[in-house]
Amino acid sequence: MKDTFKHRGLRQKLVEVVKAKGITDDNVLKTIGNIPRHLFMDSSFLDHAYQDKAFPIAADQTISQPYTVAFQSELLQITPGDKILEIGTGSGYQTAVLCELGAKVYSIERQHELFKKTSKFLPKLGYRPKKLIFGDGYIGLKEEAPFKGIIVTAGAPFVPKALLAQLEIGGRLVIPVGENVQTMTLFIRKGPKDFEKHEFGEFRFVPLLEDKN
Ligand code: SAH
Prior knowledge:
Elements: H1 5-20, H2 26-34, E1 55-56, E2 62-63, H3 66-76, E3 83-87, H4 93-100, E4 104-109, H5 112-124, E5 131-134, E6 147-152, H6 161-165, E7 167-177, E8 182-191, E9 194-203
Parallel strand pairs: 3-4, 3-6, 4-5, 6-7
Antiparallel strand pairs: 1-2, 7-8, 8-9
Helix pairs in contact: 1-2
The chain binds S-adenosyl-L-homocysteine (SAH).
């Protein structure tokens, strides 16, 4: 597992690209500059690791585009110590970003292969999420709720009620909603039954799946 001068140079260029697309949060930009994304990808894609693109990982899934990761992370407005739930661990890249931002991260993945691979991999890079869970993100993680933030990294055909219910007051849910194309959506919990909704641009994610097939 090597991180070279060349990789670091490519990462700085990627930071500039993501910045040019509108990301302004310096802490978020710093994570993109720090995290060796090439190590989260299969070796055949190494040359592409620092392009602002999504790429295939195991189990027919993808590592999200860096701009998308930065966009969602910025919307969460994390301060160190925040308890954050991620749905869709995948390669663990977004998980690593959340860890670097100082969050206490809980992350759920429904593909066992990815869950196993990423559980082993993240500690090797020094990332220690609070808990990685093999399970169904639609139901969230009731036993650890409430969360300051919840981030869904797969396209949700609808907003799962359980996730809204597991936000603390003032908490933020960042979720791409839609079937083929998703609208990035932010819910802020204002009160027990009061949610503020904000919609952003369109993104494309692999689907948030409801069953084990
Ligand atoms: N954050 C990841 C993105 C991976 S793609 C990364 O940066 O690499 C989305 C992930 O969501 C996939 O790994 C997929 O298996 C997972 N997923 C899909 N439906 C899910 C569900 N119901 N519960 C938990 N994870 C799910």
